[in-house]
Amino acid sequence: MSQPRDHWSSNTGLVLAATGSAIGLGNLWKFPFITWENNGGAFVLVYLICIAAVGLPIMMAELLIGRRSQKSAVGALKDAVASKWPAGRKLGALAGGWGVLAGFILLSYYTVIAGWSLYYFTKSLSWTFGGYPVGMLPGDLFNGQALNTGLQLLLSLGFSLGTIAVVYFGVSKGIEKIARIFLPILFGILLLMLVSALGMSGSAEALGFIFRPNFSELGMEGILEALGHSFFTLSLGMGAMITYGSYISRKHSVVKASGAIVALDTIIALVATVIMFSVIFSVAGMREEISGSTVGMLFISLPELFYTEVPFGVVLGPLFYVLVALAALTSTISLLEVVSAYLIDERGLTRHKATIGAGAAIFVFTTFAVLSIPGLLGVSAEGLLSTMEIFDGKIGWFATADHFVSNWMLPTGGFFITLAAGWFMTREATKSELMDGTEPRWFKYGAWRFFIRWVAPIAVAAIIVFVIRGVDFS
Ligand code: TRP
After folding, report:
1. Does ligand 1 lie within 6 Å of residue 27's CB atom?
2. Which end of the chain is more exposed for a tag (fewer CB within 10 A), N or C?
């Protein structure tokens, strides 16, 4: 007997859950780093254009595909393709399955980094009360924990269990409830940190770096990176938003929700970047030290700086890692939901069985990611490494998975979604989903249709062409 489908209890519930999915390590970890690598200003501007011209239309497409069919990724894409082309159901199913696989793979390594936030939370709490240890090298601390395989397994197991526990309770009683509590806390912590960071001496320089465009600094790869990241940060291209869309009831607006999700995700990424750069620019010599890796920023440079530089850092330090953990958790639950919802909708499993089964299977791959860390850190060569090189060495499950998901799976999945919404679904079908009386006045259906049929697919196809030609932007 199938149960009636669970739904978000309100528009706010949907927006908070989907925003929670979008805001994650991509905002706090990846975006500041690629902004740094691409010299700020111009890159940020291009990123904003990609978000508006490609990310927003695809966000609406995913939510509407899900809402229309009331099924998760596989079933929804099957229905979408079949609306004009009944024989194409298989292709839709394949694309949905591709997304489920992407969710599975991404979750397997995302959990590992998420686990680090738990370690740093407990550490920073102990520094808050006991003082930051004199003479400790931050790099050694990071390496020590990352190379401790037992500890890594424990941390990622903890994070996986947390994720499973939320998804186990379902959409309105699990995912939405957690988002309603955690997102306001997350916003509050970021606001406190922003106030503190803006008071630091480097904040003016940081704002200039981020918001003053200088196009001579930006190359083609930077533009592709901006485009690719707009998929990752908005949780697009793998059916996560299709799945969340399938829990939207008729009363709630796809357009309004999309606008709010995309705006919040973008604001949070920018705020996080302003905070981190204000700290970095305030400390002499920090700029040079950062130049290697974003892991360096989040888990090596920042912990010490909280205790030496940041106003109210003793309070903000532990809070910051709570923030990272909450942001990551609301993302991991949506990743697990993609896989679980597939098992529930398409394979007839109960939610409890689907969640525990998928969570356990994914954790097997998480252990592969953990075991590949020493290789990533290049330990064999020198014992302990210069941590700035992490992930540049692309070895093991961890690096392979990230490369494959960001470069191949999300763009190809996203491309298919633009085709499904722009070309396979009828005009009447998409119009009735978007123009249902709940849409805001700024929304023009014709503009959306133009972007989803032409602008978005061409832009995404460009990523794919460059990736085929060997460009790597993961
Ligand atoms: N958006 C998440 C972040 O910024 C990462 C992510 C990509 C994701 N695709 C997803 C999360 C799908 C949930 C579901 O960190």
Report:
1. yes
2. N
Q: How far is it, in rounded angstroms, from Cα 289 to Cα 447?
A: 45
In a domain, 5, yes or no: no
pLDDT of residue 389: 42
Q: What is the DSSP string of 31-68?
A: HHHHHHHTTSHHHHHHHHHHIIIIIHHHHHHHHHHHHH
Q: Which atom, in ligand 1's list, is nearest to the CA of 103?
A: 12
For ligand 1, atom 11, which residue shows the shortest CA distance? 331
Residue with CA at minimum distance from ligand 1 atom 7 = 235
In a domain, 80, yes or no: yes
* CATH number for 384: 1.20.1740
Asked whether 299 and 142 are in contact (CB, 8 A), the reply is yes
* pLDDT value at residue 377: 66
CB-ligand 1 contact for 416 (6 Å cutoff)? no
Q: How many helices (H) and strands (E) does the chain have?
A: 26, 0
pLDDT at position 365 is 95
Looking at the structure of the chain, the number of domains it has is: 1
CB 6, CB 171: distance < 8 Å: yes
Q: Which two tokens stand for residue 188?
A: 């509050």
* Lookup result for tokens 């533009």: 223
Residue 358 three-state SS = helix
Q: Is 329 in the pocket of ligand 1 (CB under 6 A)?
A: no
21 CB near ligand 1 (under 6 Å): yes
343 located within any domain: yes
**Cα distances (angstroms) measured from residue 456 to each of 240, 297, 415:** 18, 32, 8
Beta strands in 279-400 (DSSP E): none
Radius of gyration for the alpha carbons in the chain, expressed in angstroms and rounded: 21
Give pLDDT, residue 293.
52
HSE (CB half, 13 Å, CA atoms) of 31? 34
pTM of the model: 0.94
Q: Which residues of the chain have pLDDT under 50?
A: 1, 294, 380-394
Classify residue 6: in a domain, yes or no. Answer: no
| Domain extent at residue 116 | 11-468
pLDDT at 385: 38
